[in-house]
Specification:
Layout lengths: L1 H41 L1 E7 L6 E2 L5 E13 L9 H8 L3 H14 L5 E7 L1 H8 L8 E11 L5 H4 L2 E3 L2 H4 L12 E3 L2 H5 L1 H5 L3 E7 L5 E4 L15 E3 L3 H10 L5 E7 L4 E8 L12 H10 L8 H4 L9 H10 L28 H7 L2 H12 L7 H17 L22 H7 L1 H6 L2 H4 L8 H4 L13 H12 L3 E3 L4 E4 L12 E3 L11 H9 L18 E7 L7 E8 L6 E7 L9 H14 L7 H9 L9
Parallel strand pairs: 2-10
Antiparallel strand pairs: 1-8, 2-3, 3-4, 3-5, 6-7, 8-9, 10-14, 11-12, 11-18, 13-15, 16-17, 17-18
Helix pairs in contact: 9-22, 12-14, 13-21
Length: about 625
């Protein structure tokens, strides 16, 4: 019994010893774990993204238009903010208490341990005014970055602007690598060429202790990558021509678009009214943007690409070419100037051929040209015949790059509109449903040629953009083909434009037919009684081929338009001008185009044309608005 009692104590002692050993082991592991945690706290691994220099933008003469300049951002790390004196902070930083609270709330939502932007685009002077106070506000510090600076006061609509990336952008997969506070192209070329201009980010991995002191690269920097600067853009824009065009239309609404028909390179891109690109940079940019946004003249609206206007009589050139292609008329076909069909622009000689008709812009002539084109008696039923003819007409018109996006290197291009038979079917389907079954059995569609005749003179449902109108002139200048219009001549060190801008696009009209309309276009400018004499450059030995247009406007005075190319036999510039409420095309748009072509082809404008400049800038353009 005594023996068993002894064994019991031995067993108990063994269990106690094992328990002590296990407890000691747990204590050791806990101490070891704490030491690891302490070591981790002492040296934190930080991933620092290196933002590359953004590519520069040059004009066609390699003058810098857009460059980079250092600016400073005030950022906050929420975890490090201690007992902030909000009133003092707002006074020093010239910030409202509401903006401070919003900034802190957004920063905490993003991360409590990473810096978030609070004040952006501080200049060197603004930085100096707050630098001495930063020690009073733990958790706030400044970061330098490169922002856009402009060496030009022009071309704002094409260049676009760069801004701080928004939360909405960050949610898109294409911006997954961006961080809050980084710059991104918001509009224009800055946005379209964002991947090219941005370059490639670099990454550095650094060891930082709990006090934020850099302890050096992680593992000697073997995982670091270098940032690669963005590529430069070399534009085709002629900066002097652009500035001159913006000066001419400074007090107007409209556009001037010019391009080189031999390449499709855009030479100028004027949207009026315009604004200076610097307006959308720096501190206070948001307020200036809202001022522009609320301006009733809509200076932010990109008229050459987004505004859709009826082309007016400029479109008669397309109708003539299409009718000749369809075999409905020939260059020697004549039609009477019959005012019972449609009113003409003015009394003139009998339009016995296409040259006389174009020179005088005879409305009844082109009414009959289109009627012959779309009602060629291909089928017995008149309604079906018109439907078929208009479908063929629409297809050929669209082959000129009209009614669809041309593919310019800009993200907000409008397509314009070329109507189809289906459009009229849909529009007049209600009337079709109201007619008798007997009439429906004869393919009654609710519309006929009198419904659509306004297409013959460039009115009605037709809508073109400024870029399309200029490109139409380039197509005629090239006798039947065009290159996709583009702003960028080449990227980086390349010497050729991108492949998509080197491809010819032919129309559905035989190239041999274009020569028949050019003599009439030359007569418009230099012929006796021509409608665009104020665009003439004959005194310099330069022949201009063009066409005026006076676009009907139910909202007020008619719009003035003119499109042309020069020299007529060796075209180097194709241009389209549109001046809202400018009246007759020959008295407003035509002289503006003439001055622009003179500036580009001769490098200057003669002194005696200054009166014409003043007329475009300050004159009452509608005073000569009568045809």
């Amino acid at each position: 019994m005594q023996y068993l009692e002894g064994r019991r104590y031995v067993v108990m002692a063994i269990f106690m010893l094992v328990g002590l050993l296990f407890a000691g082991r747990l204590f050791y592991l806990q101490v070891l774990d704490d030491s690891y945690k302490a070591a981790a706290d002492r040296n934190t691994l930080q991933r620092k993204v290196q933002i590359p220099f953004r590519g520069l933008i040059y004009d066609r003469r390699d003058s810098v238009l857009v460059q980079n300049t250092p600016v400073y951002d005030l950022v906050v790390v929420p975890r490090e903010v201690k007992s902030l004196d909000s009133a003092k902070f707002c006074r020093v930083m010239q910030l409202s208490i509401e903006d401070l609270r919003l900034g802190l709330r957004l920063a905490k939502k993003y991360s409590r341990v990473k810096p978030s932007p609070l004040l952006l685009n501080l200049s060197t002077t603004e930085l100096a005014s707050i630098q001495d106070y930063l020690d009073d506000f733990p958790g706030f510090h400044t970061q330098m970055r490169m922002a856009r600076a402009y060496k030009t006061e022009n071309l704002a609509h094409a260049l676009g602007y760069v801004g701080s990336i928004t939360p909405a952008f960050l949610e898109k997969p294409k911006y997954a690598k961006y961080q809050p506070g980084e710059n991104v192209g918001i509009s224009g070329l800055e946005a379209y060429y964002e991947p090219t201009l941005m370059g490639q980010r670099g990454v550095q991995y650094r060891l930082v202790n709990v006090r934020g002191i850099d302890k050096g690269p992680f593992r000697g920097g073997e995982f670091d990558t270098l940032a690669v600067a963005g590529q430069d853009l070399h534009l085709s824009i002629d900066a002097e021509l652009q500035a001159y065009g913006e000066e001419l239309l400074a007090g107007r609404r409209g556009y001037i678009v010019a391009l080189d028909p031999r390449t499709g390179e855009l030479l100028c891109f004027v949207s009026a009214p315009h604004f200076q690109p610097q307006a959308l940079t720096g501190k206070g940019m948001g307020n200036r943007y809202m001022d522009l946004q609320n301006n009733p003249n809509r200076p932010l609206f990109d008229r050459p690409l987004q505004a859709k206007y009826p082309p007016g009589s400029v479109f008669k050139l397309v109708n003539e070419l299409v009718a000749m292609q369809l075999g409905a008329v020939g260059p020697g076909t004549g039609f009477p100037c019959n005012w019972s069909l449609v009113k003409c622009t003015h009394r003139h000689e009998y339009p016995s051929n296409v040259t006389i008709a174009i020179k005088n812009s005879c409305n009844p002539y082109f009414y009959q040209v289109m009627h012959a084109a779309v009602q060629r008696h291909q089928v017995a039923n008149a309604s079906e015949d018109l439907h078929l003819g208009l479908a063929q007409w629409s297809k050929l018109v669209k082959s000129f790059g009209l009614g669809d996006k041309l593919g310019v290197d800009m993200g907000h291009e409008n397509s314009g509109l070329i109507p189809t038979p289906e459009r009229y079917d849909k529009k007049y389907s209600k009337q079709v449903g109201q007619v008798s079954a007997k009439r429906r059995s004869r393919s009654y569609r609710g519309w006929n040629f009198k419904t659509i005749y306004s297409l013959s003179i460039g009115q009605g449902e037709i809508e073109l953009t400024g870029l399309q109108t200029a490109n139409l002139m380039a197509t005629i200048a090239n006798r039947g083909f065009y290159y996709t219009p583009h702003f960028v001549r080449h990227v980086g060190k390349a010497t050729q434009p991108l492949p998509e801008y080197r491809q010819r696009h032919y129309t559905g009209v035989d190239t041999t037919l274009f020569k028949y309309i050019i003599p009439g276009m030359c007569e418009v400018v230099d012929g006796r009684g021509g409608t665009a004499r104020l665009a003439s450059l004959r005194q310099f030995g330069i022949a201009v081929a063009g066409k005026t247009g006076t676009v009907q406007n139910s909202q007020g005075d008619d719009h003035s338009t003119f499109a042309a190319f020069a020299p007529a036999n060796d075209p180097k510039i194709a241009i389209a001008v549109f001046i809202e409420n400018g009246g007759f095309g020959g008295s407003a748009a035509a002289p503006a185009a003439g001055l622009m072509m003179e500036k580009y082809l001769r490098g200057k404008v003669v002194n005696y044309h200054h009166r014409m400049e003043d007329w475009i800038k300050y004159g009452n353009l509608t005073i000569h608005a009568k045809h």
